[in-house]
Each structure stands twice: as C-alpha cells, then as structure tokens.
Specification:
Layout (H helix, E strand, L loop, with lengths): L23 H22 L7 H19 L4 H14 L1 H19 L2 H12 L2 H19 L2 H18 L4 H18 L4 H10 L3 H29 L8 H11 L8 H11 L4 H19 L1 H7 L7 H13 L2 E2 L5 H6 L1 E2 L6 H19 L2 H11 L4 H18 L3 H18 L4 H13 L9 H10 L3 H4 L4 H15 L11
Antiparallel strand pairs: 1-2
Length: 493
C-alpha cells in the first residue's frame, strides 16, 4: 500500500534467508518469549508501555533470537546485515513520521485543523459521525492510495471532531482506519495493491476486481456496525457543541481559505508527487497561512507580544519541531489543540527501529522462512492452503513488524502451491491483502500500527476492536474459502 508512503527498496527483490538446521520450535521460541514479555510489560506499565519499555522489550526479543541463531551457526555479521537492511527499508517511513509531526504543528497554529473541526461539528452529528468517518476516509484513501496520508490529514481532524462530540477516541480511530484501509486496499495507486499481484504472478486490475468479492461484504458489515453504534452511543458533547464552536471562533480566525492547504497536499499525492515533498510543502504552506491568518498565535508561540520577523520565525519553527499548545476557555479544546511537532514522533520512530531489529534478526537466522514453510506443509486441502496463507501473513506482521514482509515472504513461499492446486494467482494476491495488508495496523510494534497510533494519538489497544474492517477481512476471506465461493481456477490457454 502506499499506506506507508515511502521509498521502500523494491520488495520484490527481498532476500528470504533460509536455515535448514533451524527447527520450528527454535524459530517460534523468540516469538513466544517476546509476546510473553510484552504482555507482562503492558500489564505493569499500562498505556505508558509505549513510552520506552516496550521498545527495550523488542530489543530483548531480538537478543533471544540472536542466541537461537548462534546455536544454529548463524554469524553475528549475517544477523546485523539483515537488521541493517530492515532499518534501511524504513528510512522513508521514519522521515515521513517526522514530517507528519511538523505538518500537524503548522496545521494547528494556522487554524487548518481547528477550521476542519469547526465546520465538521456543524455538519457531522453524533448519529452519522462514525459511518461518515468510514466513507470520508475511504474516498480520500482511494484518491491518494495511502492510508498513511489519510490519517495524517482528515484522520487527525476527525479525531478532534469525535472528541468534541464526546465520542470514544477508539471508536473514531477504528472508523478512520476502517475507511482508510478499505480505500487503500482497492486503490491502484497503493504500493501493496501493486505488490500483492506481483508476488502472486497476477495482474493489477484483475487483482483489484477479485478483491471486491470479499472487500465489499466486509466494508458493508463495518458500515452497518458503525451505523448501529451511532444510534446507541451516549455522547456527552452534543449539548455543548455551541459553546465549543464559540470557543474555536474566539481563539482562531476561521476561514474556508485554510482548506486550500490540505487540498494542495491531497492533489500532490494523487499526482504521485513524492510523499515527503507533498508533506514538506503542506508544512511550509501551513506556516505561511499561520502568519497570514493567526499572527497573534504565532507571536505568542514565538515568545513575543507582537508579530515580527523573529517571533514569526520562532513561532513557526517551534510548532514544527517541539510541543506546542493553544489555550482556550474550553478544557476539551485545550486537550485537543496541542501538537508534539517532530519531537512528538520520536517515541514512534524509536519503536519502529527496535521492531526492525527484532524482525531483522528473525529474518537473519532463517526463522521467518522456517515458520512459513511449516505452515505450508499443513496445507492439505484448498481451505488449508488459504488458512495457512492467512496464518503466515499474521505471523509475519507480528514477527517481522513490517507489512511488506507479510506480503513478500508468504507470496514467494505459497505461489507454487496455489499453482499446483490449479488456483488462479488472484486467490493468493487477494488473501495476502485480506490478511497481510490490513492487519498490520493491529500490531502495536508493526510499522503501520506504530504510525497510525502515533499520528492519531490513540493506542492500538483502544482502537483494535473498532477497526472492524481490519480484523474482519481475514475471517471473510476464510469464510469464502470454506464455502468455496468465487474461488477462481486456473484456465488453460
């Protein structure tokens, strides 16, 4: 997917390390120990686990994997080479995270995000809000091919609107991600949507058309659940909407012209401009619009009483780089109108790097290939083949912490098995997307889970159950396989 919006090394060229001396239980040992340590760590630290302790636990998991590697004659140099390759592959996403932090800062002080919330509160009432989140994010994500861009733009604004309406942050984030991944999954602009058929030996638009068979029922169920939730949730913010609107209007110069900035960013992404360039332009435009529309706010953040070159420069740079907040007479808005800037993204970046260390060592000792091959041997029937693919993708999202590997490794390992069973390649490519692409956001230490959690400011634990589209997709693909619905066979030419 361009869900990661990054200049990734060509995943089709990904080297899969095999180690014939490594047993399946040895391959699984680091995973079992890691999951146990993470579970205990979250029990002890709660929501603060992502502040640093989980990152160190991932390094300990990598150390366990390294010990297993040493016992199986894998050199330290080989393990470090795979770690270096893994970390290198995330360079683009780490830079994007920094730019998203910068963009959120200038979009806050310029009034772009407050304006989105201001107009959104007038249009979106609590009853239709969650379903509207799904639809809005699906449209943006189809247009951009990127769930990452969707979260960083309209996603942040929708989280703010939901909080102002008194709707659970987890519910709103789940609706945002459900829509974002639906659109991303079906967009021909998405890199994982292109990667999956490439791995399976299929064709892009055949793959997209075939995916609708499971994706449309899944998004339909998701929308129905959010519609029902909209009629049943008790929102505390409904009655207070008028005072919230008044507070926003008093604190910012609200204008429809501010929407030009997100429109420009989305236009650049659709036109396939490099994501970093689009985000940089969005950040700089946000800074310029802040100077034009919110001079008093910029001056205050810059440490002065009036706007001049020095206070303007300091105000914009502070918003880009460090934590900033804008005080209003409404406590809900005070919590909402704050941004961590680039500094606020460092915890997420730290998490991704540590996850890549664990995933790199697991790949370097041959554990990823060993786990996938064992799952492939369990595939005695057509349904067993689909189930093994799903399990393999989920396992790779947990162990490799990267959705690309969750597509590439099973794609390479299973492609011959599908062909031998007379199954068309789109069966494999669809299963890779239904289980590898969309579930990456459900793993806190996966690059996607870390990114969306950091950008939206909502932990994976909070939104997991409400990211209905994401966890329902693998079950839907297994249901269709079990009932033998639309399982396309190879046709002889």
């Amino acid at each position: 997917m361009q869900s990661q919006d990054l200049d990734h090394n060509d995943p089709k060229d990904e080297n899969i390390v095999e180690n014939k001396e490594l047993g399946i239980w040895e391959a699984l040992l680091p995973v079992v120990i890691l999951v146990g340590m993470l579970a205990y760590n979250v029990f002890v630290f709660g929501d603060d686990a992502l502040s640093g302790s989980n990152q160190f636990i991932l390094l300990l998991g990598g150390a366990v994997a390294a010990v297993v590697g040493f016992f199986n004659k894998v050199s330290y140099k080989q393990m470090m080479a795979e770690v270096a390759e893994n970390v290198k592959s995330t360079t683009g996403s780490l830079l994007i995270l920094l730019m998203v932090g910068a963009l959120s800062g200038t979009w806050l002080i310029s009034g772009i995000i407050p304006s989105m919330i201001y107009f959104g509160l007038q249009v979106l009432n609590p009853t239709i809000f969650l379903a509207a989140c799904v639809v809005i994010c699906a449209i943006i994500s189809i247009a951009t091919g990127s769930s990452w861009t969707t979260s960083a733009t309209v996603g942040i604004a929708l989280i703010g609107i939901g909080e102002a309406l008194g709707i659970s942050l987890g519910m709103t984030a789940g609706a945002v991600l459900s829509g974002a991944y639906f659109g991303d999954k079906l967009s021909p602009l998405s890199d994982t949507t292109n990667l999956a058929p490439a791995m399976a030996g299929g064709e892009l638009f055949t793959h997209i058309k075939y995916m609708t068979i499971t994706t449309i029922p899944t998004i339909t169920v998701t929308l129905l659940v959010f519609i029902v939730l909209g009629f049943t949730i008790d929102t505390s913010g409904t009655a207070d909407t008028a005072s919230i609107l008044a507070s926003i209007d008093q604190s910012f110069n609200i204008s429809g012209w501010l929407f030009l900035v997100p429109i420009v960013v989305i236009f650049l992404i659709v036109k396939k401009a490099p994501p970093l360039l689009a985000l940089l332009i969005g950040t700089l435009l946000g800074g310029v619009f802040a100077l034009i529309f919110q001079p008093e706010i910029v001056a205050t953040i810059g440490g002065g009483e009036g706007l001049n070159f020095v206070t303007g420069y300091k105000g914009v740079l502070n918003a880009i780089t460090v934590a900033t907040s804008i005080a209003t007479d409404n406590q809900t808005l005070n919590d909402l109108f704050s941004s961590g800037g680039m500094t606020g993204m460092l915890g997420t970046i730290w998490l991704i790097i540590c996850a890549m260390v664990f995933g790199g060592i697991m790949d370097g000792i041959g554990a990823l290939a060993r786990i996938t091959k064992s799952l492939l041997r369990m595939a005695k029937t057509t349904f067993g083949l689909f189930a093994s693919t799903v399990t393999s993708c989920l396992a790779l999202n947990v162990t490799a912490s990267d959705q690309y590997l969750a597509i590439v490794v099973p794609g390479k390992m299973f492609s011959k098995a599908y062909k031998d069973r007379g199954l068309a390649p789109e069966n494999l490519s669809r299963t890779l997307e239904d289980s590898g692409t969309v579930t990456s956001v459900l793993i806190p230490w996966n690059t996607c889970g870390a990114y969306h959690s950091g950008v939206l400011g909502v932990s994976v634990a909070e939104y997991f159950i409400y990211a209905i589209f994401n966890w329902l997709s693998p079950f839907m693909t297994l249901l269709f396989a079990a009932l033998n619905i639309k399982i396309r066979q190879l046709t002889s030419k």
